[in-house]
């Protein structure tokens, strides 16, 4: 390849089949984790930490705060914030 061909190849958008495999490998799909799942995980983590003999009160306090925060968010999502409007 000449220098001009190399430059043209580099500047060209990555629509080639050669590059599609490497692009697909880099795509990471993330799904939103529900507040309920997070709350349950923190509760289990807190139970585990309380069973450890080397657990620190600071760690326990932090984990309790995180558990409480997720529980509040879970409750706020379960509540209906507005009544649906039904015209008569």
Observed structural traits:
4 helices, 66% helix, single chain, Jerky-like, 88 residues, 0% strand, mainly alpha
Mean pLDDT: 78
Rg, Å, rounded: 26 Å
The helix tally amounts to 4
Distance between the termini: 74 Å
Sheet having the most strands: none
Structural class of the helices, strands and pairings?
mainly alpha
* Helix content, binned percent: 55-70%
- The poorly predicted ranges are none
Number of strands: 0
Shape field: flat
Task: Report strand %.
Answer: under 5%
The sequence of SSEs as H and E is: HHHH
Protein name: Jerky-like
Region (Disordered): 1-32
Biased composition (Acidic residues): 16-28
Organism: Araneus ventricosus
Task: Briefly summarize what is shown.
It comes from Araneus ventricosus (Orbweaver spider). This protein is mainly alpha-helical.
Written overview of the protein:
This protein is mostly helical. The protein has a domain at 34-83. The protein is built from 4 helices and no strands. Helix 3 runs antiparallel to helix 4. The chain is flat and about 65 Å long. Residues 1-32 are annotated as: Disordered. Residues 16-28 have a biased composition (Acidic residues). This is Jerky-like.
Tell me the layout of helices and strands.
Elements: H1 3-11, H2 17-26, H3 35-51, H4 57-78
């Amino acid at each position: 390849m000449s220098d001009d061909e190399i430059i043209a190849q580099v500047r060209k958008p990555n629509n080639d089949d050669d590059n599609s495999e490497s692009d697909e490998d880099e795509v990471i799909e993330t799904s939103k984790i529900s507040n309920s799942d997070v709350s349950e995980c923190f509760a289990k983590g807190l139970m585990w930490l309380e069973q450890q003999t080397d657990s620190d009160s600071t760690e326990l306090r932090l984990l309790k705060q995180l558990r409480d925060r997720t529980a509040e968010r879970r409750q706020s999502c379960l509540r209906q914030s507005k009544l649906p409007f039904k015209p008569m």
